Amino acid sequence: MGMFTNNEQETIDALIEVGFPPRDIPALMGNIDVETGGSYSHTQKERGGKGYGLFQFTGSHKRDYFDWLKDSNLNDNKTSQAKFVFDNIYGNRGYGRELGWRDRSKLQTMFSESMLANPHIDDPIKRKAKIFSDVYEKPGTPHNERRMESAKNWEQKLASTKKPPSPTPATGMMSSGPMRRGSRRGRKRPS
């Protein structure tokens, strides 16, 4: 076995496959670690609760996920759960769950900006992990210190592998993260 368990590697691959850029994987993996109790299983059930999956969907969030699966004609797996979350954040239509424009904007901003370049942010990975927990997960008991420590550990583990992102199966192309409508990447500014 390599540096990661099969469940860990499959989760990383699923996140990248659906469009999350490699720089954001540690923050997401730190949250998934706490949500699944370290199993990284997409069928993980919350002990003594009603949470399910990598992101421990509960209540209407869980119903929305299973409705989205049915409407999208998809099976429940790591990639579907990752795609549901990705689409919740970036989707225009058919995203399965309405987060509200404020939460969606906070998450998009967190994932789009390069926090590494901002000298006012002490630790970008920990900050992303906490924002994702506070805005998307909204857990009853946050365990934010554990989430942030796990994200930091994931940052170190992923940096030590120096493994390039996996190609997406459909295209064979590397994921470079989401393109937003109106993105200015590659455009020249008018003079």
Features of the shown structure:
mainly alpha, globular, Lysozyme, disordered C terminus, 50% helix, 191 residues
Protein architecture, described:
This protein has helices at 6-18, 25-36, 59-72, 78-90, 101-112, 124-137, 144-161. The protein has 191 residues and is an all-alpha fold. It has a single domain, classed as Lysozyme. Helix 1 (6-18) runs parallel beside helix 4 (78-90), helix 2 crosses helix 7 (144-161) and helix 5 (101-112) packs antiparallel against helix 6 (124-137).
Write the SSE topology.
Layout: H1 6-18, H2 25-36, H3 59-72, H4 78-90, H5 101-112, H6 124-137, H7 144-161
Mean pLDDT: 84
CATH class: Mainly Alpha
Anisotropy-based shape = globular
State the oligomer: single chain
Largest sheet: none
In short:
By secondary structure, the chain is mostly helical. It is built from seven helices and no strands. The longest helix is centred in the last third of the chain and has 18 residues, at 144-161.
